[in-house]
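Q: I have 180 residues here and want to know how they pack in 3D. Can you give me a structure?
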Amino acid sequence: MTEVYSPTTAPNPKSSFFSVPSDNLDRVRFALKVLQVLLSLVAFVLEEVVSSCLSCSSLYFFEFVSCTAFLFTLLLVFLLSTQLHSRVGISCWPKLDFVYTAVMALLFLIACIVFAADNGGSKEELTAVAFGFLATAMFFSDVGYFLKTRGLPFMSGGAPDSSNGGVAAPAEVEKLNVPE
């Protein structure tokens, strides 16, 4: 039996719930963000299995930063990889994403340095610090890739200048085809 009718409509790629790449998140940054989520989760879980601490303030700070990084980055990935970001009411997603990622990278770096300098030397603590530094590297990589591909989001346009290393020519000021 041959098929008489063929489909007449093409599927709408924007109708899917999950959409990567999108305007706010390309595939490379999506992969970096997933690695940030996973590494900060592992750092948090490893910190949680520490049974005793000599100076607990560095442990608690590391716990706060790793848990915050895990939860908020997971939320950010979920929002940016679905259509839900359009329903939140935030219009400056690139700026929010950049600032959040840069601040989290700095906080994670500080927390890792403090926890590495002030811990009991147990295997759990040292492994948590190692995963913390890996997560920190992913956050800084994300910031660097963002700057490389999109430029600083606070500049006009946000895209990096492409001037082949030279000085960019000034824009033309004379209008063409102006009626007199």
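Q: Anything worth noting?
A: The two ends are 71 Å apart (CA to CA). The helical segments are 27-48, 56-80, 93-117, 123-150.
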